[in-house]
Amino acid sequence: MRSLSRFKILLASSVLLAVSTVPACASGLDDKTPDQQTIDALEARALQAQPREQCFIYTQLIHEMTELSLRTYAAGDIQKATSLLKKVQLLSTKLHISISNDDKKLKDAEILLRHTAFRLNEMLHSTSYEDRPLVQETLAQVNKAESDAMMHVFNK
Predict the structure, then answer these.
(1) What's the pLDDT score for residue 62?
(2) In angstroms, how far is the first alpha carbon of the chain from the final one?
């Protein structure tokens, strides 16, 4: 009887610990407020980067632009948010082209793309009906880039 009580207490505390730490870890990527200076710096780095490093830098750019788009959309600047999402689509195409088997941080890129897709999915649910097609297209392209990155990770 005592062991059953201990087991229930241990199980309850484990569940509580897991539930309280997962959101803290997931929110770590979104703690930093994205800004145009960071995006401009990443764009400059992407142009000068070696091919092995471009994939991850493009991924960072996609993530930063998505986060900035989410914030500008929430602030009511639909035009800027839309412009950022169109740039995300272009970068997703560049990312797809830059993925290769010898990328330095391919697994990290795949994880960041998965998180970015999650954030775009959140945006999809909060946007107006007129804005959804662009968000859906962007989400589809980011999902494809994430899938491609994951396939390259598993093929290594």
Answers:
(1) 95
(2) 51
Structure tokens at 36: 């145009």
Q: Where are the beta strands (DSSP E) in 14-155?
A: none
Q: From the first residue on, what is the mean pLDDT of each consecutive set of 10 residues in the chain (156 residues)?
A: 54 48 47 82 90 88 95 93 94 84 77 95 92 94 91 77
- Cα(12)–Cα(2) distance, integer angstroms: 15
Residues in the chain, total: 156
Q: Cα separation of 49 and 41, whole Å? A: 12
For the chain, how are helix, strand and coil distributed in percent, rounded to 5? Answer: 85, 0, 15
What tokens does 79 get?
């035009």
Record the tokens describing residue 139, joined without a space: 């989400």
Give me the DSSP letters along 52-81.
HHHHHHHHHHHHHHHHHHHHHHHTT-HHHH
Q: What is the pLDDT of residue 28?
A: 56
